[in-house]
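**User:**
My hope is that you can spare some time for a protein that puzzles me. This is the protein in question:
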Amino acid sequence: MTQNIANPDRPQRTLVFGGARSGKSAHAEALAQAAGKPVIYIATAAAGDAEMAARIRLHREQRAQHGAHWSTLEEKMNLGAALREHTRADKVVLIDCLTVWLSNLLFADGIEREYPEIGRVDPPAAFAEQRADFLDALAQARGEVIMVSNEVGMGIVPQGAISRWFVDEAGRLNQAVAARSERVQWVAAGLPLTLKGAPC
């Protein structure tokens, strides 16, 4: 991986994003492994159903192959606090993934709602609070941070106000994270394309 030779301890924030099954998670894990430092893997997914539980189990098995220098932290909500606690010059923090975290924030208050086909969507107060806190913590990160996110806005416009809100907010989040990152990579068919910063 390309390093900043003049200052190797300078914080390096990398956004890796792409579509479903694009290979983005595998690429992000390869970047983390290549850094040669202990890795703190922050998983944002929760086992809400059998399918998600199976996916989480598979990801855990895959991460176990990286060795004992990888440790996993499950954090569904407070990403900002997790970043402040774990970013260090001698570690890599890998977050997978931001769009799952975004959906967690949408239902942060635990209230089930009926959203209309059209109209305004008012997310819980925790959405704006946690989003702002995460972006602030990211800007102040003291070590290497690699983030995985989905690109969900390249297909047809989905039906339902909540689906359209999610697509819009995912796009805005990706833009905000990319603006704070030194490197941004798009992954398609397992192949990374560097959009910002030095390629690895």
Summary: The radius of gyration is 17 Å. The first helix runs from residue 24 to 34. The helical segments are 24-34, 50-64, 79-86, 98-106, 125-139, 161-179. The longest strand covers residues 144-150.
